[in-house]
Amino acid sequence: MATKEEGEGIFEIWLGDSRAAGAPSPLSDALDSLYASGPGSRRTQQVLVGVRASIRQPEADRLYYASLDDTPVGRLFIAQSGKGIVALEYSESETAFVSGLIRRVGGKPERSPGRLKDAARQVMEYLEGRRETFDLPLDLAGLTPFQQRVLLAVAHVPRGKVATYAEIARSIDRPKAARAVGQALRRNPIPIVIPCHRVLASNGGLGGYTGRGGVRTKRQLLSLEGVELGTVA
Amino acid sequence: MDESFFETMLSTLGPEIFAFLWRIVGDGPEAEDCLQDTFLRAYKAFPRLEGEDVNHRAWLYAIANNVARTHLGRRKKHDARNVILDEQRSDGGASVERIVERRQELETLREAVHALPYRQQAALILRKYHGLEYAEIAAVLGGSHAAARANVYQGLKRLRKQFSYMPLVEER
C-alpha cells in the first residue's frame, strides 16, 4: 500500500495539481500522446451538426405506410413521413414492420395506401425493370449521423455501377471505417431505394445483404440493373 | 422549454462532451453515436431541469457517462478502436525503429487504460483532460468526493505499477 506522500506525489506530477515537483513524467507524457489531442475540431463540428438536426426532428411528424404485396422480391412495406420515405422493408408481417417503425422513428404510423401511392408505384416499376432511378425524398430520422452519411454516400452510387465498403468509407472521409460502413448498411432502413445492394466487398465478393433471400436478392437486384455478375464472385 | 439555452449548451459543451466520449469509447463512429444519444437524452430530460440550480456541465457529463458505460457494456470486443497518435510529439529525428517501438508502447498503454475498472478510467480522464473538480467527478460517476479522488489515484497507481519496467522514458 502506498503511503499518503507517495500518493500526493503522483497527483503533483501527473495531474498538475501543483507542478512544484517539476519532474518529467514519461507516463503522463505518454497518456497525453494518446488522449490530449481529442477528436479534432472539424470532425466535432460535423458531428454537432448531425446532433442538432436529430434534436430538431418534430415529434408530431406523421407517419403513413402501405404494403406492396406482390413484387418480384416478395412482400414489402413502405412508410413515409412529412419529409420523405422513412422505411422500405422486406417483411411478411405488418405488426412487425409497424412496431419496428415505432421503435426507430416513434409516432403512430397509419396505414394509408393512398398517400403512399406514388412511392409504391415507383418501387414496383423499378423492380419490374421499367424504371431506372427514384424520384423520392428520403427521411433518415432516427439514424445516427454516421449512418446518415453512409447512406447518403451510397445513394449516389449510380445504377449499373458498384462500389466497395472501403470506397464508401473513403468517400465520407473515414477511410478506416469500412467495417462500420458494412454495419450501417446492414441496417439500411430504405433498401432498394438507397441501393446498398450496389456495395460489395473489396475482394470482389458480394458482401452481405439483409433483405429477404439475402445475397440471392442482392444478385437479383444487380442483374436487374445490368451489372455483369460474371466478374463478381 | 428554453430552446436557445439548450442550443447554447450544445454549442459550448458539445465539443468537450464529444472529446470525453472519444477518449472513453475510442475513435470510431461509436463516439458519434454516443454523442447523439447523450444530447437526445439530455433534450428529453431538460424540461425537468429548468429552474433548478444545476451544474449543467456535470449533468451532461453524467448523461454521457451513462451512455458510454452502456455502450461499452454492449461491446463485446475492445479491438475495434483505432488510435490517433499525436505524431508531432517528440518523435522528431527518431529512428523508424524507435517510432514503431513508441507506437507499440502507446498501444499497450491505451489497452491498459481501457482495462482499468471503468470508474478509474473515467475519473482519470475527467480529471486529467477535462479539468473536472473531484466534487464534479463524484457527481458524474456517483459516490463521494473521496471516492472520486481514490479512483483517480488507484487508476494512476495501477498504470504506474504496470509500466514501471517499460521503457516509457524518452531519451532527453
Name some characteristics of this structure:
heterodimer; A: 233 residues; alpha/beta; two-stranded parallel sheet; 9 helices; globular; disordered N terminus; B: 172 residues; mainly alpha; 7 helices; 0% strand; disordered C terminus
Walkthrough of the structure:
The complex is a heterodimer of chains A (233) and B (172). With 233 residues, chain A is of the alpha/beta class. In chain A, 42% of the residues lie in helices and 12% in strands. In chain A, helix 7 crosses helix 8. The longest helix of chain A is centred in the first third of the chain and has 16 residues. Chain A is globular. The N terminus of chain A is likely disordered. With 172 residues, chain B is an all-alpha fold. Chain B is built from 7 helices and no strands. Chain B is globular, with a radius of gyration of 18 Å. The chains are: A alpha/beta (233), B mainly alpha (172). At the A-B interface, helix 1, helix 2, helix 3 and helix 8 of A face helix 1, helix 2, helix 4, helix 5 and helix 7 of B.
Largest sheet of chain B: none
Strand content of chain A: 5-15%
H/E element order of chain B? HHHHHHH
What is the strand tally of chain A? 6
What does the radius of gyration of chain B come to?
18 Å
CA-to-CA gap between the ends of chain A? 61 Å
Please indicate the percent range of residues of chain B in DSSP E strands (runs of 2 or more): under 5%
End-to-end Cα distance of chain B: 56 Å
Shape of chain B from CA axes? globular
Shape field of chain A: globular
Quaternary structure: heterodimer
Helix/strand order of chain A:
HHHEEEHEHHEHHEH
Mean pLDDT of chain A: 82
- Poorly predicted tracts of residues of chain A: 1-13, 15-21
Number of strands of chain B: 0
The percent of residues in helical segments of chain A reads 40-55%
